[in-house]
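User: Reviewer 2 asked us to show a designed sequence for the structure in our supplementary figure. I'm pasting the structure tokens here. Could you produce the per-position amino acids so we can include them in the response letter?
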């Protein structure tokens, strides 16, 4: 091997520490740039979204429980990749929330970022129950940025680095459902608009095109 890469800095450090080779380059798993503007925020209808794997480990229960603590301004849409058993379980778990919870079918990967654009905030509240979850930097994080959404995350170090740099999201101070609900409840429409505008700026800096350059540099090739 003449080069190695991975998707996040802490993972690169783990590889170097565990295997004794040079720290891999960072090439983040980002979608292509999408030329679109943030959608306007309706202060009476704050649209939360979670898209991705239908897995309870991805915080789906926390999202439903937090919504129960929030006022009627908030609703959530789940766009879950096919796992019929889990989706059926989530539908049953959220049944009491009525039309404040929607389930929509997944779209092709090339359409994810444009489909997300109608929403306001993407929630990525991954309890750190494993190393992979603790240091996760999922594709959906970057798809939400290209969708021009504000980001709501837990204290996940790799996601926090980017949110802190671009100020395009909020980091929940704690891992309880109440912590998540309190953070969401504190967000005004003006604050959400500012978060979405910050993701608009971040989308130019973080996308498949910029990461392509990082990859080519890591293997000693030119663009």
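Assistant: Here is a per-position design you can include in the supplement:
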């Amino acid at each position: 091997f003449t080069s190695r890469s991975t998707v996040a800095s802490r993972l690169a450090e783990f590889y170097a520490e565990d295997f004794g080779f040079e720290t891999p380059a960072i090439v983040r798993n980002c979608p292509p740039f999408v030329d679109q503007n943030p959608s306007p925020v309706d202060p009476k209808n704050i649209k939360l979204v979670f898209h991705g794997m239908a897995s309870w480990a991805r915080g789906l229960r926390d999202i439903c429980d937090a919504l129960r603590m929030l006022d009627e301004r908030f609703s959530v849409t789940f766009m879950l990749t096919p796992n019929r058993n889990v989706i059926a379980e989530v539908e049953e778990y959220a049944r009491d929330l009525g039309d404040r919870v929607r389930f929509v079918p997944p779209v092709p990967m090339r359409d994810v970022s444009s489909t997300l654009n109608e929403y306001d905030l993407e929630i990525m509240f991954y309890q750190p129950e494993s190393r992979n979850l603790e240091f996760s930097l999922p594709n959906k994080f970057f798809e939400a940025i290209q969708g021009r959404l504000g980001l709501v995350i837990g204290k996940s170090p790799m996601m926090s680095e980017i949110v802190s740099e671009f100020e395009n999201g909020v980091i929940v101070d704690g891992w309880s459902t109440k912590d998540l609900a309190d953070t969401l409840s504190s967000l005004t429409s003006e604050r959400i608009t500012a978060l979405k505008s910050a993701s608009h700026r971040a989308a130019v800096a973080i996308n498949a095109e910029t990461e392509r350059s990082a990859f080519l540099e890591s293997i000693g090739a030119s663009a």
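For the response letter, you might also mention the following. Strands lie at 5-6, 25-26, 46-53, 74-81, 101-104, 121-124, 150-153, 169-171. Residues 189-205 form the longest helix (17 residues).
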